[in-house]
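CORE FACILITY INTAKE
Project code: CF-77B
Contact: R.S. (postdoc)
Sample description: multi-component assembly, two entities in total
Requested service: structural model of the whole complex
Turnaround: standard
Below are the sequence entries exactly as provided by the requester. Do not edit them.
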Amino acid sequence: MAVSVRSGARVSSELSEGGDALTIRVCGNFDFNLHRDFQRAYQNLSPAPRHYRIDLSETLHLDSAALGMLLLLRDHCLGDEDDVGQRQVELFNASDHVENILLVSNFDKIFTLR
Amino acid sequence: MSPAPFRVLIIEADSGEAARLRGLLEQCARSGQGIYAIDARLVSDTRRALDNYPQLLPDLVIYGPAATPWVTREELQRIRAKAGLEPVPILFVKSERETLGSACLQTGCDDILIKPYNPNLVQLKLAALQRFCDFNRSLVAQRNRMRRHHADLLHEQASARQIFSNMGQESCLDQTRAIRYHLSPRAVLNGDVLAAAYAPGGKLMLLLGDFTGHGLAAAVGAVPLTSIFYSMVPKGFSLCHILRELNAKLHRVLPANMFCCAAMLELDPHKHCGRLFNGGMPSACLRHGSGSLRLLESRHLPLGVLAEGQFEEAVVQFPLDAGDHLYLWSDGIHEARNLEGEMFGEVRLLEAMAVPVEEGGRFEHILAAVNRFSAEQHDDLSLVEVALAEVPSGPVTGIEMGAEPTLEIGRLGEWSINFTLGPEELRDADPLPLLHSVLAQVPGAAKFQDPLTIVLGELFRNALEHGLLRLDSALKRTDRGFAEYYRQLDCGRRQLTGGWIRIALRCRDRGGKGLLEVIVEDSGPGLPEDIGSGDRGTAYSGRGLPLLRAICRKLQLQPGSSRVRAVLDWGQVARRSRRQRELAI
């Protein structure tokens, strides 16, 4: 059995004043169990924010399902034809461990890592 | 929907008491408040209740006031055993005057009705018990549903494993001792895939992939992956071309959140060099015979993430020496945890890689180290070891080694083909698979695919790399230069704006012992003066020239001319390939 029952993992989000930037913070293990919460955090926002910032400071671990969720977010941002290129997804405050996972998958090539 | 009536079994020897109890229950049901229909049955004692249990199948058992004092603990246990998983509450009826002795508790009834009956209290109790039974029934129904689903799931997974193990039979993994691998039987359901096949010309291609997720969703991605792999590799497509195709296909078919981390190796036993693509897999480890380690880290996004046009397939090139081993693994090894929840990690893995171990025992040593560390037996460890310098070149197509040298070839026919490739084609196209597919149609040619692939490949690459791009083979003498050489090649090829390469093939039939003439020419200034002198600095440096000489009946090249002519014997392939093999080992 995979070690998946780790309580305390959660997603919170905050929209900047004016609704221009959305910050999503993921606490604990970023894995498949969070996929609903993670999607809910950015879907159905109108108008859609320009900047999406994922705060990974509280993220302990990140698995391939989480990488998949980030790709979905990227698709969501690039999905709108009208202002492609204006939008960006930024991942920040990752621990060494989490950053290493992102780098192994070369996600720095499609996301901004800070 | 009106629920099935609530079945109450009254066990009472005194018929008057039994009738009174039944009347009371039916009255409660008629009042309707919170209670649905009651179906009350009477039996006189526990033995009859047990005998007729399957017909009665009660939701609730009530011992009447006359029966209650005689009930034993064993009888109640027998009734509960009949009820099985369904908890059927058992009530006693006691008169108000009786003290609630501990004997009553010890028999293990669930609740007590007090006589004389207070209809409101009885109704309240019945309603509560009905809710309890409903709740329990739905739990049991859910459990049964989950059991069924789980059984279905196991069945589907078994079928999936069967399908994937059948697909894997195309692989050449078990044909050589130079490749060792560990994949759990559940690997495919963990998303891990291993495929290996020989390309024409004897190159080995091996791919270890890891799809996102678990279960069938992770497994289905392996179908297009392996089918493309096993169809393109034997046709002679280049590593880059196959990777481009795999990425494009996975990008098209997988949902956006799914992808495949993959490491793919191309090993050329003739030229003693390897190439590796790593997209999202843990660093592969190249262990030199001397014991030094070189990590080949992931330089790319996993397959299936980028759209067709954005995919880069630049690969790492490395020369091979005796004793070199390559290790590939999926993240299951890194993530194996011990009792404290700590991961095995790359550091421990590299330690296991570096320590001196008896010759040939490293593979087991690594697996044992992971299993010793981890708290539970992990079923998602994938590890591959390739003894790079010991991989034999691919089997000679269609001919067993040591087969009769006098072959029945049939008619070869007289024919010729001319190709001219301009800068557009040379920039990123790979002309060899096209040539192979044309030649595959020619009678008898399939049997000569290997020597022909080597000759065409060598001549074409020399024309491109030295004739057109003027690259210096001397660079390849050092590790760093080796990488630099391929960087220059990649760069030069992409910037190519002029020039051409011409390939001409002509077959002459001499009664089953034909000759095939291969002429490759390019627009460059021609071969240098010292060609063929054996000096490693020249265009046909190192292994290229002796390899060609071993395979061809005749090889003509002239300083100052870019035209190279090779003549292949069409009739004596078995002998030739044996020589070619000796050369490679």
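Facility notes:
- The beta strands of chain A are 10-15, 21-30, 51-55, 59-62, 88-92, 112-113.
- The interface with chain B takes residues 1-3, 32, 64-65, 67-69, 71-72, 75, 104-107, 109-110 of chain A (CB under 8 Å).
Invoice: internal transfer
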